[in-house]
Amino acid sequence: MSAETLLSNERLDAIRERIRTEGRVVAAVLAVEFGVSEDTVRRDLRMLAAEGHCERVYGGAIRPRHAPTTLRRRMSEASEAKQRLGRLAASLTESGQTVFIDAGSTNLEIARHLPRDRGLTVVTNAPSVAEALSDQTGVEIAMVGGRFDPRLGSCLGGQTIEWLERLFPDIAFIGTCGLSLEAGLSAFSAEEAALKRIVAARTRRLVVAVTGEKLGLSAPFQISGTETVSHLVTDDPDHPLCRELAELGASIISETRSGHAASS
Amino acid sequence: MSAETLLSNERLDAIRERIRTEGRVVAAVLAVEFGVSEDTVRRDLRMLAAEGHCERVYGGAIRPRHAPTTLRRRMSEASEAKQRLGRLAASLTESGQTVFIDAGSTNLEIARHLPRDRGLTVVTNAPSVAEALSDQTGVEIAMVGGRFDPRLGSCLGGQTIEWLERLFPDIAFIGTCGLSLEAGLSAFSAEEAALKRIVAARTRRLVVAVTGEKLGLSAPFQISGTETVSHLVTDDPDHPLCRELAELGASIISETRSGHAASS
DNA sequence: CCATATCATGCGCGATATTGCATGTTTTTT
DNA sequence: AAAAAACATGCAATATCGCGCATGATATGG
């Protein structure tokens, strides 16, 4: 790799390779190394960046690192609304029940607000939920294992599903990416939907807690129809969808101005 | 990590990483470490804080946390010794390996320091470990389920053991409550010991990372003899037990004064 | 063979980013 | 309350960047 005259594509390939193997390149270094001007190198880097093969930074380029959206990010902005939903939903549990809690920021709030004097048994596929309960006494916790998806913050896959197929919880809190009349409960991935579907089919009570922004939305993969929902906890009880769900037999639970729960 | 010429964004990444793994950074230290002025470091920290990747405190920055604390107070949360052990132990992993990580504060530090560019697969029975890895890309994570013990922060019981009996990790990091010649590795509960024993018997490399205070101690339930330990990572390499372990074939790994790893 | 089109490249120039320093303010410590 | 440390802000020096344009080389077509 000397100052030989390299065809432009070859140079591009070489730079691509360098970025891939070394993780970083410096424009000025590449310029002297290939015997071209820095402008040319910058042009190359611009192309590679457009292809997604690198990320441009001041002075050169680095290997693309893609991971901006994590659960942690969403968690830090646990809105007051979600905390209220969590408290409301948690109050639906009854003594001695076995409770399934799904992953998600709202469900995490449910876990945080679970009463600790009812001898509950909590089953979850979300490590964050188990963690949140770890300072509580009086709550039995079972963790469902499997492949852990960092983006969702929960366990998925065959292992997980196999386990859940043998579980019949008294009450289940599952998260949803969308809730609408046509699409029912829906999720962003097929695997996620499959898992939630298993749980929804086996529980005696299915509780869905969502902020108003998700009402009326639908995601690509259906979990189940709206008729499977027995309780909807929301901060927007006046949404038309709520009335329709109520007619299908679901309880709509929200907070009144004075802070008490109301159900219709 | 010396006075290399680092691209400014790389420095940002590096600081981000330090905050993620170590929980706290000191502006003055970063300044000399990267060979830039403190002003520049502060600017970086301001940016990271704006992105939500850290929380600024007087003197530096800490991992985002909702309760405001001083840097001084924060220093005591995870001792520096454990962080060093974590970093050292994590460097023992090799490309493509399947890694088991046990529960415990030291092991959590190992997880935090795991390299993300080696295509590692991590198996753990501790939700906190899964959580700690959840903002990493390039690490496959498998969670071993079971009954969750809040006091230990890990999953135990028949379910867990059944799963682990089918696992043969390349390398395993397990925690121990005591390490002595007579009692070997030992734990405070029979169930805990049984679980660790399963893992110890199936891994090709067994790494134990302990602070010096645990050397020579023994807990009621034996996990296995000292001869099963292939690597001992410690901050007290002069302890007599280390020499004896070395004679049994274990590698003793610790940090020299200058900050580099040494093994005997 | 010549005219023209196309392309990669290098150079100049104004714009932008990064950095360190000076200055004044806020926070912590004594 | 005073001293020290850390901090934010404005500013100037330097480095890097993007863009337009000229140049030369190669390809295409008559």
UniProtKB/TrEMBL annotation, chains A, B:
Keyword terms of this UniProt record: DNA-binding, Repressor, Transcription, Transcription regulation
PROSITE patterns for the chain: HTH_DEOR_1, HTH_DEOR_2
SMART domains listed in its UniProt record: DeoRC, HTH_DEOR
Superkingdom: Bacteria
Residues annotated as domain HTH deoR-type: 8-63
Molecular function per GO: DNA binding; DNA-binding transcription factor activity
InterPro entries (alphabetical): Carb_Metab_HTH_regulators, DeoR-like_C, DeoR_HTH, NagB/RpiA_transferase-like, Tscrpt_reg_HTH_DeoR_CS, WH-like_DNA-bd_sf, WH_DNA-bd_sf
Name of protein: Transcriptional regulator, DeoR family
Organism whose genome encodes this protein: Fulvimarina manganoxydans
